[in-house]
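Quick illustration, no need to memorize.
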Amino acid sequence: MELELENRGNLLHGAVVLGLTDFPGWFGLKTHFLTPPPFQGGFTFRVRRLDGAGIVGISGQPPVPGHTFVAQAGPALNTADGWRYFPVPATWGRSAGCYEWHVSADQEASLLSQR
């Protein structure tokens, strides 16, 4: 699995700029999930804040705290050269901090962190 963020910043050094939203008190990270050609299984992404208390979530609009993103097995609406692409409107947060995305898929799990 791959996580892609569209926000400005320096992803190689773990720093992105939180985007402004139409929802007072909420900031967003434009989030996309991709799977390579050999993987066609389902998966679940969750997000949490690592550096303290704070409400976060993955969802459409409006923000839903604690929400998870679930992709079903099989082809996606957006597929190119075998890569499945799942655009998700945003990862939401109330303030800057250290966020972690956790993916679990067919008995494998990995962590993706972004500060």
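The chain has a mean pLDDT of 80.
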